[in-house]
Amino acid sequence: MADLRRGDLDPNRLPRHVAIIMDGNGRWAKRKSLSRINGHMKGVDSVRTVVTACREMGIKYLTLYAFSMENWKRPEEEVRALMDLLFQYLMDELEEMLENDIRLNAIGELETLPPRVYGRLMETMKATRHCQGMTLTLALSYGGRAEIIHAVTSIVSALEKKEITREDVGIDSFASHLWTKDLPDPDLLIRTSGEYRISNFLLWQMAYTEIYVTETLWPDFGREELVEAILDYQSRERRFGLTSEQLT
Ligand code: FPP
Question: In the predicted model, is pLDDT for residue 248 greater than 80?
Fold first, then answer.
């Protein structure tokens, strides 16, 4: 815990929900003349480190963009390796999640995952559903636009069945049709590898999210950088469209 520099962080102003776009595994591998798959393997170590650190710090929600819908178009060998890594991660981490009171959640078109990964995911979610220390959400086969279309379709269907009326459709009720219905909106988005893009991640939910971009590649991202990101977040004034004076 010592290297978390916990004293510097204000425990009363921690982001409740941290979302991360874990980018740069391929570039990390290329720089070291390794295969892209080796980069993803090292990326899993960063996932472990960050999950543990967030839990220790008292972050209540952590959401990781692990596989986008667009990622299916990558070379078959890379997709297979990512699915294998995910399966292995779920196998290896269940005990750790239970010990640390971490609930596993997932968002995305989950039924498009290979059956064994889907099965393992469901089992892990079921086994950890009583955990309350932190909710770890994996975005898998996830796309923000698809999530919005899914919500619209679900609302249209509820209107057609006369379960709701036009007046029931508003910002909060819309959010309750999203895959993230049980999560608060992210307070902080971290993106590694220096790209200033949202890449179809949590489009609706990030309306007022603070964004932190670091040049560090995901396999090199660790506790210290996480603390840096949160310190930076704590230095910001979140106005949600109001003026500074209105906030004080
Ligand atoms: C982006 O790097 C990363 C991904 C597409 C996959 C992220 C997956 C992991 C970190 C490992 C599996 C996850 C879990 C939760 C076990 P990139 O390949 O696009 O990097 P590049 O832009 O440098 O090519």
Answer: no
- Give 96's DSSP letter: H
- Contact, 151 vs 174, CB < 8 A? yes
pLDDT in tens, 156-187: 999 999 999 999 999 999 999 999 999 999 99
Helices (H), the chain: 25-31, 36-57, 76-99, 115-127, 144-160, 171-175, 223-234, 244-247
* pLDDT score of 7: 57
Question: Would you list the DSSP string of 70-95?
Answer: GGGGS-HHHHHHHHHHHHHHHHHHHH
Give the β-pairing of 61-68 and 134-142: parallel
Residue 160, CB half-sphere, CA atoms under 13 Å: how many? Answer: 6
Q: For residue 28, which atom of ligand 1 is closest to its CA? A: 23
In the reported structure, the alpha carbon of residue 81 is separated from the centroid of ligand 1 by a whole-number distance in angstroms of 11
Residue that wins the pLDDT comparison between 244 and 194 = 194
Q: Which residues line ligand 1 (CB under 6 A)?
A: 22-27, 40, 43-44, 47, 64, 66, 71, 82, 85-86, 89, 138, 193, 218
Written as six digits, the tokens of 227 are 């603390």
